[in-house]
């Protein structure tokens, strides 16, 4: 029987994982050791963060793509990928949806994490299919350079938001070291801009539309401007699991590819899931602009991530991308 996805708080991930494994019929995964369920399926856990990505994976589960490839998948939702990184490192979960920053940083710190597949690719001609930096109505900020000395929210410190916005400010002639970054969930940005709590905030669809409807605007499409869009999001895996179970990893990627193909061709079905999964109005869900989903991993783009992380001292040593990207 396939496990249902569940919404979990960031502080309850470890406990929730234990509950989830008990929910499997008979299988379990302890580190890289796999015990199949009574139905002959491999129990697998995938961590996701609160965003429309939840609907994409859930659609793949409901369409049976993972079960067809031999998996009893459990999808675990948290506010950020960083919150679930310890579970990935320990092997309590086997895969994690994340910005490339998360697995690159984790690997340089000695954690057992590698990048196994792509997830989201941005359309260079579309802003709101991804995350961007927005300002509220009547903001005096007109370009990235104007962010000097301002309070800017990103979804996680040391994330793609921090390196991407820094690069955009620097390219515009500004000094990114003067920016005060605070951590704020993407969905909380519209209210924070309206209240004046922040001068600018990183958010994504459907909240970009919410900010624009209130008179705000996009200050910088920094992910595209920095050349990071082709692998904005990736799937990371537990390194030991990948090493000991390469065929199962290949099967998981194949299930992802079928999920992505379905997602790219069935936007209406995905949008219908969003009100329940993200607690947003139906009208906002129908206006969701979907990105392109792809399992392709582009080493050059990931190398740009690594270069920016080194430049802005997110990592102390230059990442070894040959070790970080899983070879299969």
From TrEMBL:
<protein>
    <recommendedName>
        <fullName>Solute-binding protein family 3/N-terminal domain-containing protein</fullName>
    </recommendedName>
</protein>
<feature type="domain" description="Solute-binding protein family 3/N-terminal">
    <location>
        <begin position="43"/>
        <end position="268"/>
    </location>
</feature>
<keyword id="KW-0732">Signal</keyword>
<dbReference type="InterPro" id="IPR001638">
    <property type="entry name" value="Solute-binding_3/MltF_N"/>
</dbReference>
<dbReference type="InterPro" id="IPR015168">
    <property type="entry name" value="SsuA/THI5"/>
</dbReference>
<comment type="similarity">
    <text>Belongs to the bacterial solute-binding protein SsuA/TauA family.</text>
</comment>
<dbReference type="Pfam" id="PF09084">
    <property type="entry name" value="NMT1"/>
</dbReference>
